[in-house]
Structures are given as C-alpha cells and as structure tokens.
Amino acid sequence: MTILLVLISIALLVVLIVWAKLNPFLSFMISAIAAGLMLGLPADQVAKSIQKGMGALLGDLVIVIVTGAMLGKLVAESGAAQRIASFLMRFFGEKYITWAMAFTGLIVGIPLFYNVGFVLLVPLAFTVSYQYRLPALYVGMPLLAALSVTHGFLPPHPSPAALVAQFGAHMGLTLFYGFVIAIPTIIIAGPLFAPFLKKIHSQPLKTFQAEPKPESELPSIGNSLFTALLPVLLLIGTTILSFSIPKEHSFSPLVSFIADPGIVMLVSLFYATFSLGLKRNQTMTQLMEVYTVATKDISMILLIVAGAGALKQIFTDTGVSQTIAEGLKTWEMHPLLLAWLITSVIRVCVGSATVAGLTTAGIIAPLVTTMNVDPNLLVLSIGAGSLMFSHFNDGGFWMFKEFFNVSIKDTIKSWSLMETIVAVAGLGGVLILDLFI
C-alpha cells in the first residue's frame, strides 16, 4: 500500500506538470503536501517537513548554483566563450570540425547552464555551417551533445550538484568520474553520430546567426580558458590534495575549506570578475548588472530544487524512503541500473531532466547506506537517465526544432535520438567504471 501511495504522489506530479501545465515548483509543493497527508504524516507536521527539506537542500546549493550562473553569464557576455570557440575551430581545422564543436561544447558548457549555452553557441554553429557550407545538423549536433552531457553529468550544474548534496557524494570525485564518462559519451553522441545527420535538411533562420564581437574586443585565449575552467581545476586540485594530506596535518582544515564547492565557486567568480571584467575596463556597476540578470535566469531552477527537497523530506519523515529501500533489496537489478531506469521513466513522462533527477533522488537515496553502491556513480547514473529521449514535453526539444528549422519527424530522428544515445552511453560508462571502483 505504501508503494502505491508513493506512485500516486509521483503520478500526481507528472499529471500536474504535463497535463495541467502547472509550474514545476507548484507541482512539487502540491505533490509533497498530498504525499504527506496520504502517507499518514500529521497535518501540523507536513508544512514543517516541507520547510525542512527545502532549507536543507538549498543550504547546500544556493552558493554553487547562483555563483555558477553568474560565472557562466560573464563568460558569455565578455566574449570568452566566442574566443574559445574560434580558437578550437582554427586548431582542429575544417576536416575535424565536428570534434572542434564537441570540445567547444565541453569546455564552454562547464560554466554555462544549458539554456544559456544553447542560445549562445548554436548561432556560432550556424555561422560555421554557412562559412564552410556544411549541413547545420552535422555541425551543431556535437556541440549540443557536449552541452547536454555537461548539464546532466558535471557539477556545478544544478541537477548533479543537487544529487551530490542529497547522496553525500564528493563533488570533486563526482566531477572527475563525470569527465571519465562524459568524454567518450560526447564522442559517441557527437562526432560519431553527426555524419548520419548530413541528409537531414535544415535551413536555420539567418536571425539566429551569431553576431560575433570584433577580435580586438575579445579576451585572450589563455585568459578565457583559464577563467572558464578554474572551477574544474580547483575542484580536482583540492580533491587530490585532500587525499594526499593526512587528516591530522595542520593544513588539512585549510584544504577542506578551499575544497568546499561553494568556496571554489566564490573564488572562481571573484577571479572572473577581475580577469574578464575589471581588468578589461568593465565597471563594477556593469558587472553587477550582469550578475543580477544571471540570478533571474536561474531563479526557477532554485525553486524546482527546493520543491524536490520538500518531496524528498516527506518521503524521509514518513519512513517511505526506508520502506522503498528495503523493497528494492529484493529486486534482481543492479542499483545503478535501477536508479537509471527510474529516472529515465520519469524523464520521458515529465520532460525536465532536473525534475527527473531530483525526484528519483528522493526515492533512491536510502540505497546509498543500505546497499553497496558508490554515491558518486549513483549521481552519474541518475544524470544519464535524466537525459533519456527528449520529446514534446521538453523545452529543449522545441528550442532545437525552432532554431534549426526542421520538422518534428527530423527533430525526433536527430535531437531525441542523440539524447537517447547520451543516456545509454552514459549508463554504459557508469557500469564499466563501477567494475574498477
């Protein structure tokens, strides 16, 4: 009966988002209240559980998500992303143009949220397509595959960062494992898949062609790369240090402080404010305006994360999470595969990768302590499942269709299939890595 009530509450969430077209945050709130009451939580405790769940999850994530959005916005506005893209195009040459686009998406996609990266980089892909007279989908798909993978796999993007917090995983290790899996996944879904799309006709509107800044106004390639990748360098560097220095060493507390994801993002943002802003004659007022716009862009993401935290807390306080965990022990299925499967189903039903990932986290969290599963790989397994088969209920599906100006049939044959390849290849990478960890 308990499992049935959980399924009803998740079905309610899906119906509210997909059928009623209700905002995901409000849908999470209604589903959390309904779940709490159905599962026997005293009415006066429902609101307290919701507030506790929202506060606990946002407390871990607000700094990371907000500073990540600010950093990404500055990388875009300063022209650093354009500089990185043009450099990689010259480095790889026309023959390996799809590899250049994939690497551009990987590097620029680390600090940029998906929607920002899409709007910023897809017009650059169109410009390259016109310049070299190549099919737009052939040029653009490797870029989108990389952006999608970084969105689903790599902190500090919202879903993987939230999953790290929920599972008590290690941000640096998750990022490292994420790179190990992300690179082959991008290669399969990008440069190797792109040649099959050459015959799909796409006539992107000239409105969407990039209006690049003059070369003289762009930051240097060294500055652009170092600033965009600084969060990654700090997270990996401090992770290596934390494993190298004994806990009783006098420097251990300092390393732990610097290794905190929030501190890493703050340091990276302060450096970017100088290197891409003040150093290039931007005023502090102008930079703060950029950051204000960035926070507006991700306000709904923060609310969705908070809503997911509320639903997860309801499951925890009613004992449902533990009941589910005990029940799942009897399933003859690897926990990483199970997590991926649950996420994939929710993703196909709801459309949002973030909602799918965070909803699964509330169900699967007890497996971290009750079963032999690496929490870092669990984050990546759910991240892969959250990208499964994007279709009509996903905003990314329609962005792709309209920007590339293709039919719905061709959108499914290209975009939806690419997302499915990413999900399956990502799962394969997680399961292979699990053999060695």
Automatic annotation (TrEMBL):
Which GO molecular-function terms appear in the entry? gluconate transmembrane transporter activity
Query: Could you tell me the membrane topology recorded for this protein?
Result: Multi-pass membrane protein
User: Pfam families from the entry?
Assistant: GntP_permease (PF02447)
Q: Where in the cell is it found?
A: Cell membrane
Instruction: Name the keywords, alphabetized.
Output: Cell membrane, Membrane, Transmembrane, Transmembrane helix, Transport
Query: Which residue ranges run through the membrane?
Result: 30-47, 54-76, 96-122, 134-154, 174-197, 218-245, 257-278, 290-311, 337-365, 377-400, 412-436
Q: Which GO terms describe its cellular component?
A: plasma membrane
Q: Which InterPro entries match?
A: Glcn_transporter (IPR003474)
Family, as annotated: Belongs to the GntP permease family.
Query: Under which name does UniProt file this protein?
Result: Gnt-I system high-affinity gluconate transporter
> What is the scientific name of the source organism?
Algoriphagus aquaeductus
